[in-house]
Structures are given as structure tokens and as C-alpha cells.
Amino acid sequence: MQTKEAAEALPILDQMTQRGIKCTTISYTTLINEMLREGKEDRAKRMFDEMVSSGHKPSATTYTVFINSYCKEGRIEDAENLIVEMEREGVAPGVVTYNTFIDGCGHMGYNNRAFDTLKHMMDASCEPDYGTYCILLKHLLKGNLNVSYVDASALWNLIELDTFWQFLERMSQYCLNPTMKTFNSLIAGFCKASRIKEACVLLDHMCGKDITPNEEIYMSLIK
User: Which residues contact 42 (CB under 8 A, 6 or more apart)?
Assistant: First the structure.
């Protein structure tokens, strides 16, 4: 669908219907995403309305493509309002939704808002993943280096332990306790960059918090 003009979307849906091919939530979401990529938000919203009126319930992915578009445009309020709307409609934001919004906040320099979202995420029993922690650390590092951009692929080569202590302190300020997944992610990141010394410092800190390392952590250290 990426080679098609968004203007052709409705005729395509008509053709699918005429041929007895049922449009699914995935079909609608794919078309909406392409419209947003082309900057045709009004058409994307009309497609969303068409989707709902035809009896298809938007998925978390459907909402996330809009949130992603808003964040890229710096429209953080609109993105946050959409998260509220999807929750009101009974659609739980997933890790990708939260990561997208957290990254959008970070790009705008709203690190406090990013940690607010992390708290909301964890309070909603949505476990942050490796990507979540990379995003938060990337934006903290960006502020520490006083630069506008940090290449995510170079994160684990650039970051120092001071940024991790800062990260853990920020979590504490929001009454968030690092979990096994938190330490798994941080230690794995350092290990991927062959920085075993730093990984072992975090391992010692983890043990000092009475969190017993699991097999995944030890496997990261010995690879």
C-alpha cells in the first residue's frame, strides 16, 4: 500500500467490498498510516470515522499511528489527548504506544512528562521494555551533553554511569522502583557495547537492592 496515493484509498475499499473482500481493522490502519505519512491528516480522520461507522473497533495500533504522527509534528497535547481517548474507549495502550509518546516528549525536551508517562505506564501494568529504557536514557544523555540529537545506535558507547544514577534517581522521584526488567535492559545494553565493567557495577547495585539476578542477566554477562 505504500506505493499507492492516499487519495485512492476510498476507491480501493469500494473495490474490496465489491469483490467480497472484507476490510479489517488492519486494512483500515494500514491506509490511515499511509495517509498520515503523506501529510493528509483530514483524510486519515475521515478513514478512521469510516472504519468506526462500518463496525470495526480501532486497535491500539490504529491510535498509535495517529500518536506517532502528532509526536513527529511536536503536537504532544494532541497525542496525549488521544491516549486518554483510547483508554476511555476501552483500548489499552501497549508498549509501542507508550514508547512512541515518551520519545515524542523527549524530542520536545519534556523529560518530566516522559517520566510521568513511564509512571502511568507502569501503574497500568504495562511493563516497559528495552526500548522504553533506551528512549529515556537517550533523552537524559542528550540533556547532559547539551546536544539536540543522540544516535540511538551509539547510546551504549556514549553513556556513562552518571546518567544511570540520574535515571534511577528520576525513577525514585516518581515513586517507581526498578524491576528485574529494568536491570536486564540496562545490563544488556552495556554488554552489547562490550562494557562489562559498567555492567558489573549495575549488577552489584542490583544485588544491593536485594534483587536476585536471573539467568538472562548472567547470560548477557558471559556472552
Answer: none
Task: State the chain's mean pLDDT as an integer.
Answer: 91
Over pLDDT 70: what percentage of the chain?
A: 91
pLDDT, residue 123, reads: 95
- The one-letter amino acid at 98: Y
* Prediction pTM value: 0.89
Q: Grade residue 10 by pLDDT with cuts at 50, 70 and 90.
A: low
Dihedral sign computed on CA atoms, order 156, 75, 96, 24: negative
Task: Say which amino acid occupies 58.
Answer: P
DSSP 8-state symbol, 195: -
CB–CB of 100/82 below 8 Å? no
Q: Is 155 helix (H, G, I), strand (E, B) or coil?
A: helix
Sign of CA dihedral 130, 135, 140, 146: positive
The per-residue pLDDT for 184 is 95
**% pLDDT > 90, the chain:** 84
> CA-to-CA distance for 141 and 160, rounded, in angstroms?
9
> Which residue is associated with the grid cell 542528550?
142
Distance of alpha carbon 222 from alpha carbon 157, whole angstroms: 19
Query: How far apart are alpha carbons 218 and 180 in whole angstroms?
Result: 12
Closest to 68 (Cα-Cα) out of 78, 55, 59: 78
